[in-house]
Design brief:
Helix 1 runs antiparallel to helix 2 and helix 3 crosses helix 4. The chain contains four helices and two strands. The protein is globular, with a radius of gyration of 15 Å. It is about 70% helix and about 5% strand. It is mainly α and about 90 residues long.
Length: about 90
């Protein structure tokens, strides 16, 4: 299997688990309500940093989570690809 495809599939599974955990726990009026939700929110901060330039485009509100999911998956894919490239064979 191509290493990029393998890293994409692993990243997709990781991001699906993180995204599910982040949205399965309750949210309070000012943000995450539990430590698990807060941790998952912190994991997504780099993706939110990359989404910041998109805020000036005035996209519809429903596009926030799909774009966050896609950007976070790409970041996980790059991290997994680096790990697969430097691991001892």
């Amino acid at each position: 299997m191509n290493p990029w495809v393998k890293s994409f599939l692993i990243a997709l599974v990781i991001e699906t688990l993180c995204f599910g955990l982040m949205h399965s726990s309750p949210w309070g009026p000012y943000g995450p309500d539990t430590a698990l939700t807060g941790t998952m929110f912190m994991i997504h901060l780099p993706a939110m940093f990359f989404m910041d330039p998109l805020s000036g485009l005035h996209l519809p509100e429903w596009t926030f989570f799909p774009v966050l999911f896609a950007i976070a998956t790409c970041l996980w894919m790059l991290l997994v690809r680096v790990i697969l490239a430097i691991r001892v064979r």
